[in-house]
Amino acid sequence: MTEARHIVIVGGGFAGLWAARALAKAPVRITLLDRGNHHLFQPLLYQVATAGLSAPNIAAPLRHILRRQKNVTVLLGEVANLSPDEKRVLLGDGRTLDYDHLLLASGATHAYFGHDEWAPHAPGLKTLDDALEIRHRILTAFERAEAEDDEAKRAAWLTFAIVGGGPTGVELAGTLAEIARHTLHGEFRRADPRKARVLLLEAGPRVLSSFPESLSAKARSQLETLGVEIRTGVPVAQIDSEGVQLGDVRIAARTVLWAAGVAASPLARDLGVPLDRAGRVIVMPDLSVPGHPQIFVAGDLASIQHEGKPVPGVAPAAKQMGRHVARAIRARLQDRATPPFRYRDFGNLATIGRMAAVVDVHGLRLSGLLAWWFWLAAHVFFLIGFRNRMVVLIDWAQAYWSYQRSARIILGKDRAQ
Fold first, then answer.
1. Which of 3, 45, 356, 403 is geometrically suited to a Cys-Cys bond with 182, CB 3.0 to 4.6 A?
2. What pLDDT, on the 0 to 100 scale, is given for residue 417?
């Protein structure tokens, strides 16, 4: 009897998990490798960062998700190197995994445009660790403002600067403004949270540049209604522990958050193939790697065009790529040609705050309350697990009526200077 082909999947995000599930009935052995033990619903990560949801609400153990799929083995580990010619993955602890087919779906990390020294002062938001760090900084800032006697220093603690006007930056800014204006009102005696400044800094001409200009304008209006100060057209020149330099203007802000750029996982460099400017692999039409047909790349690590534009690094695209790789592998097992990947664009969604969002779906353009309900329904529907959906709905219902945030616990050591 022929031994089942071994499929190694690196990354338990949307692309990797959806590929593994789509191969449930295939005659293969699957090893799913991830440096974390959980699958993360990244679109709601900002809710953990802003104390709206607890980490387990948007994450689930990979072993639990795949417990009934007998052809999958989940391994906790990190890739140290790839040997494409030998069809081998070297792990950080010295173990090796040989494969017949490899799927790289290790995602992306933060890009500081050549200024990695900014990273300690302006954390980005990609993982649960990132979210908990940001939550710690936000909540601690209000505490430090309460303890500060100097008015200028107190104002700096109550100034929050978000760099990047994409969906993540908009979501963080809108939610931070609500926390300051509503959630924390009346809880402090010396510092008034309502005096907090929330600045959204975008180097381009407008926020939410991937949306139509009309929705971008409405998003800006809704943010300003919440009290967010928006500055566009000037890139950040410097970030340190005391604040940011924006052109000729110095802004004293003790909490700076990064939502401006992403870079592909460094694993792509091990393949020795052409990469795009963001470090993503320029894949073949079927998502395989040039010169290495047994290797596929999906999700944020893949660079491929759709109607003359890059396929965006969003969850629906990653899921589609994962399912396509599974189809391609099944075709290879049957000695058939692999089909090209066809991306289906389901549109863009971004939430701004309580009862405020923008939606652009197949020509349907919504803003305000209706868009917010559309956004909420879509995100709850795609959460994994009945318990996750119910808990998130309960927490959101509580927040809707009370403005309270359910996870306002400061964890970790205060690293503020």
1. 403
2. 44
Q: Are residues 126 and 101 in the same domain?
A: no
Please provide the average confidence, as pLDDT, over all residues in the chain. 91
pLDDT at 416 over 80: no
Number of domains in the chain: 2
Which of 333, 352, 379 is the last residue in one of the domains? 333
Range of the domain at 106: 5-35+77-110+262-333
In which element (H, E) is residue 182 found?
none
Q: Higher pLDDT residue, 386 or 310?
A: 310
Residues 6+ apart with CB under 8 A from 331: 337, 338, 339
- Structure-block tokens of residue 339: 């089909």
| CATH assignment of the domain containing 269 | 3.50.50.60
pLDDT the model gives residue 2: 58
Respond yes or no: is residue 171 known to be catalytic.
yes
Q: Mark out the alpha helices in 315-383 (DSSP H runs).
A: 315-333, 369-382
Please report whether residue 292 resides in a domain: yes
Write down the H helix ranges in 148-302. Answer: 151-157, 167-178, 213-226
Same-domain check for residues 125 and 235: yes
Average pLDDT score over residue span 374-384? 77
In a shared domain, residues 96 and 128: no
Residue pair 131/36 in contact by the 8 Å Cβ criterion? no
Catalytic residue among 133, 148, 171, 178: 171
Nearest to 219 by CA among 173, 254, 281, 157: 173
Same-domain pairing of 95 and 13:
yes
pTM of the predicted model, to two decimals? Answer: 0.91
Run of H or E residues at 400: helix 386-402
Contact 341, 327 (CB under 8 A): no
